[in-house]
User: What shape does this take?
Amino acid sequence: VKSDGRNGSCFFTPEMQARSARLIALGHALKQAQQRGELRLVYQPQLRLSEHRIFGAEALLRWDSPQWGAVSPAEFIPIAESSGLILSIGDWVLRTALRQVRHWLDRGLPDLVVAVNLSAVQFDQPDLPDRISRMLDEAGVPPHCLELELTEAAAMKTPETAAQKIQELHQRGIRLAIDDFGTGYSSLSYLKRFKIHKLKIDQSFVRDIDSDVDDQAIASAIIQMARSLSMGTIAEGVETAEQLAFLRASGCDDIQGYHFSRPLEPDAFEHFVLRDVG
Ligand code: C2E
Ligand code: CA
Ligand code: CA
Ligand code: CA
Assistant: This one.
């Protein structure tokens, strides 16, 4: 069946068919990826502007499939979420990132915070705070070395239980950042009640920040609001010196982006930090 191009009313184009065949095949391959060691983490440095110091990194998942090549997390994470596979993959990500931090601390790297992305499905687990505490203990990593990145949508889906869970994580000393901030629909009143360490300004506001006055206004407003609610800010997707200059002048605390560094293999991250310290 093919679209006649006039009203687009046809249901299943060859493109859609190919697309869903790929999704199904990727889903199958993903089930084995974890045991077969095809998953790994890379670490993108995060820079504290006031101290010009690397204080942490975001752990980002990579999948090198022998069959499909490098598959983007933007494609396979939603597949993992809808199949429930994200729970075991998410546990693996947390354990691997924490083990990595422990290794870096043992190697004498200064106190580091590793930021780990948490999908809504993971966040919804009733025993999440216990699970994470257990993983921290197993890895021998203090809770303040872990920051969970949660999107607004994940946090706001069920605001009441979310508030409680966030409170529990906070009491255990685990940090929380709201990812892609500004793209969702956060209720500002909840934001005030939640114990959130940091707002992560979405890269869609950063991209044209040196020329687009609307993006400038949004970024500045987020930074000022965060400050008055005692939260920090980090801008993601910072690619140019001009973007950095604007963010610095607006009072943004931290930055992450290609301008400073791409996501790095663990060893490369270690060298990057040691060069930065030395
Ligand atoms: P995200 O959490 O918003 O991560 C930021 C993305 O922007 C990453 O893409 C990163 O590589 C990319 N990036 C960093 N600096 C720049 C820059 O200067 N310019 C541009 N254009 N992009 C930059 P990546 O690694 O492909 O990840 C895509 C998304 O996949 C992530 O978006 C996150 O939502 C998801 N993801 C990645 N790893 C995990 C994970 O371990 N668990 C979960 N649940 N989701 C993950
Ligand atoms: Ca993130
Ligand atoms: Ca983000
Ligand atoms: Ca994003």
